[in-house]
Amino acid sequence: MGKPYFTLVLTKLPTAMPTHRRQFLSTVTGLTGAALLAPQLLQAEEVKASPIACNQYTWFTFYSREGRNWTADLDASLAEFKKSGLTAYEPSFNNADEVKKLIPLVKKHSLTVPSAYVNSVLHKADEAQNSIDSVLAIAEATKPLGTRILVTNPSPISWGGTENKNDQELAEQAKNLDKLGAELRKRGVTLSYHTHDVELRAGAREFHHMLLATDPRNVTFCFDVHWVYRGSGNSQIAVFDVLKLYGKRITELHVRQSVGGVWSEAMGEGDIDYRRLAQELKVLGIRPHIVLEQCIEKPSPHTMQAVEAHQRSLAYARDVFSKLLG
Prior knowledge:
Blueprint: H1 21-25, H2 44-49, E1 53-55, H3 56-65, H4 74-83, E2 88-90, E3 92-93, H5 96-108, E4 115-118, H6 125-141, E5 149-152, H7 167-186, E6 190-193, H8 201-212, E7 219-224, H9 225-231, H10 236-246, E8 250-255, E9 258-259, E10 262-263, H11 274-284, E11 289-292, H12 306-320
Parallel strand pairs: 1-2, 1-11, 3-4, 4-5, 5-6, 6-7, 7-8, 8-11
Antiparallel strand pairs: 9-10
Helix pairs in contact: 5-6, 6-7, 7-8, 9-10
């Protein structure tokens, strides 16, 4: 494994489609009991008022497959984004300057930015404060956009290897994640913790510790459904167990579908029962901010381009999650 984005230049599009957002962004020039109570950081009516959004990363993957550069002409790219019917955009930021560069384009295309994704390094004591300060600066920079949620997936040690954070690093990360969330809460911004598949390794110890060792008032949960599914060995049981464990901490939902374990081009029926998920969220009384992240990977079918794919994904999501959208 949902809004302004930054005017940066890709020096070279990757030849192989990266499956992690952080891997892709590393190619961009310039990127440097009570515990389960629902956090009252976002009022229900505020969440309900947010339209279905889409993360910029999915567009990167489609553009890359087509041999195009999303940031080469961001004005034109955002025009295509808007053409798909989407009106809410979730960008990724590494620093506040990227926010400032994007604000005029977002306003030009009448896009809202309810949430943004921010990178962070929180497991290293000597780096964590700089990372926290950077995220807080981003929070200040996004104030003109009305951004209410910042999503972060604290950086793993490595994507391709098998090395996991040790207990000391996990404790340090949880402490700093909570500190970041507390500081953001003072500023009226909600921190939403996100995972990919890496955090589900080794008994999912990193994933669980980040939620069990932090205050739910400071750290909420961005449930990236398919990364939980894939990180658990393509297990839908794991998806719904996570929902039972942490459902009331969910403030944001990242949604992606696969068929036979392969990411599909557009949201539809497939490996994950999103209709059941929507119903169970309704029963829990949770109305999260919903963000499309229907990315493609190398084995994905190639039958449509980005605009059509996102039009279909948006139509499906509006149908499936209609009872959560008010």
